[in-house]
């Protein structure tokens, strides 16, 4: 069960990164607001030092088999950026958040119809 949450976590992170480029390309109002809102939520959790709900679910459902799984080991390395200092990850997230939020100024949303 923990691997399912790990995969969901990975897909969420992928959405956050790729979604920025897709959001700029299609410039859809709803898509960009949802993307920015989720990023604001995640950034707020990081600022407050609160673990991600998906991380909590992964830990709750983890077992001995979970640690030995090839998929789980590599997704853990990718998701939690084990080779980076937590401060670097925090600065990277805040920089990405500023880029996303500033994009509303340099790539304005289309007018409402």
TrEMBL record:
Membrane-spanning segments: 6-26, 33-56, 87-106
Swiss-Prot/TrEMBL keywords: Membrane, Transmembrane, Transmembrane helix
Classification via InterPro entries: DUF2784
Transmembrane among keywords: yes
Protein name: DUF2784 domain-containing protein
Organism lineage: Bacteria, Pseudomonadati, Nitrospinota/Tectimicrobiota group, Nitrospinota, Nitrospinia
